[in-house]
């Protein structure tokens, strides 16, 4: 807490004109769409292709509609959603199944019956049982890890075509017996005589039946992510009003993108026994006044993080087809984008749990030889409005850059007219392991739509980790 208090004091002192700057930032949020097409121009910059390294391309990306948990996907299992995403990808691309060399999927809350969900979903989608499939987990950047695993296998020449993706199913998460009950049941299973079984049963006490409920909390700190977001917002002086305005921006832009048909990665999914789902159901523009009536969700009564300015529990799956450029072109595909440089970062999970984008952004820019001004589209994961705004303020702080990032001056915050202009996780939803593929696919689509050349994708993750990647538009 001393560290966080120090961060609060120093940041408040060092941020340029704190109150005024906040007002200016809010204005930028609310006016971001008005100047989008005027600001983003088609540019002709250098390519990031490198001699001796194969070009890796995103051919296509799809996802099931992202639904609030407990709604239309309620009776399914994770592999059902993953299978639907894989089948949607096959349909969208007319991809011969035998062409795929490997399948990599991410997941966070693991269903024990399908622990390698990549394999189960692949078999269910009709892929050959000769195609290897494995599952990765890295919290909210699990499908980012799936994609970069695919990138590495292709760039190194081991594979030519890989399907990567992610799935999360929050409608039915594993609930365990207490440890005492688990030990007793395991011992009971090993008991050889009736007397041994009766003896073990006699040791069971009422408190053994208390279940262990899962929580979105850090194992190392035992703190929920919402608590961390609340403290981070306080440390950087992010007000409740700022958070609500940013959340409203996300929902408003997502609604507009949905109505204008920009969210083309969404596939229709016929839910067994129910209706066909065609769109995300968490996009709900409200008003700052209505949002302001909600009570704090984590730190009560004075916290600023609420249900309205946080991402909601979501069910959904995503899938992308990643190939070497030569393979894609040989098969007649027109790739959407090149996948270029990427980095992973990690920092203190207590006080800097959600600052991954602040650390990852300058590293990936430096690695690629680009500057913030070279980026035409930014797609950042929105875990909480307070998390995004805290990252923005950290990136605008010389003191933070010098003290924590090892830079002489501030990184600079992404301009809002280029930032998450089709909505984000706050409105579209956040099925933990599926979000990374959505970010990359959206970045590629935005570059195509807006005529830009480079996009920067970034996300935070539990454990104090983060990821960033440069996406380069494929020549049209």
UniProtKB/TrEMBL annotation:
- Taxonomically, the superkingdom here is Eukaryota
Q: Name one GO biological process term.
A: fatty acid beta-oxidation
Q: Which compartments does it reside in?
A: Endoplasmic reticulum; Mitochondrion inner membrane; Mitochondrion outer membrane
- Tell me the pathway: Lipid metabolism; fatty acid beta-oxidation
Domain (Thiolase N-terminal): residue spans on this chain: 56-326
Q: Give the UniProt keywords, A-Z.
A: Acetylation, Acyltransferase, Endoplasmic reticulum, Fatty acid metabolism, Lipid metabolism, Membrane, Mitochondrion, Mitochondrion inner membrane, Mitochondrion outer membrane, Transferase, Transit peptide
Q: What does the record give as EC number?
A: 2.3.1.155, 2.3.1.16
Domain Thiolase C-terminal: residue ranges: 333-472
Q: What Gene Ontology cellular-component terms does the record carry? A: endoplasmic reticulum; mitochondrial fatty acid beta-oxidation multienzyme complex; mitochondrial inner membrane; mitochondrial outer membrane
Q: Which residues cross the membrane?
A: none
Q: Name one GO molecular function term.
A: acetyl-CoA C-acyltransferase activity
Enumerate the catalysed reactions.
an acyl-CoA + acetyl-CoA = a 3-oxoacyl-CoA + CoA; tetradecanoyl-CoA + acetyl-CoA = 3-oxohexadecanoyl-CoA + CoA; octanoyl-CoA + acetyl-CoA = 3-oxodecanoyl-CoA + CoA; hexanoyl-CoA + acetyl-CoA = 3-oxooctanoyl-CoA + CoA
Query: InterPro entries in the record, alphabetically?
Result: Thiolase, Thiolase-like, Thiolase_acyl_enz_int_AS, Thiolase_AS, Thiolase_C, Thiolase_CS, Thiolase_N
What the record says about family reads: Belongs to the thiolase-like superfamily. Thiolase family.
Q: Share what the entry says about its subunit structure, partners included.
A: Heterotetramer of 2 alpha/HADHA and 2 beta/HADHB subunits; forms the mitochondrial trifunctional enzyme. Also purified as higher order heterooligomers including a 4 alpha/HADHA and 4 beta/HADHB heterooligomer which physiological significance remains unclear. The mitochondrial trifunctional enzyme interacts with MTLN. Interacts with RSAD2/viperin.
Function recorded in the entry: Mitochondrial trifunctional enzyme catalyzes the last three of the four reactions of the mitochondrial beta-oxidation pathway. The mitochondrial beta-oxidation pathway is the major energy-producing process in tissues and is performed through four consecutive reactions breaking down fatty acids into acetyl-CoA. Among the enzymes involved in this pathway, the trifunctional enzyme exhibits specificity for long-chain fatty acids.
| NCBIfam families in alphabetical order | AcCoA-C-Actrans (TIGR01930)
Any idea what this protein is called?
Trifunctional enzyme subunit beta, mitochondrial
Native organism: Erpetoichthys calabaricus (Rope fish)
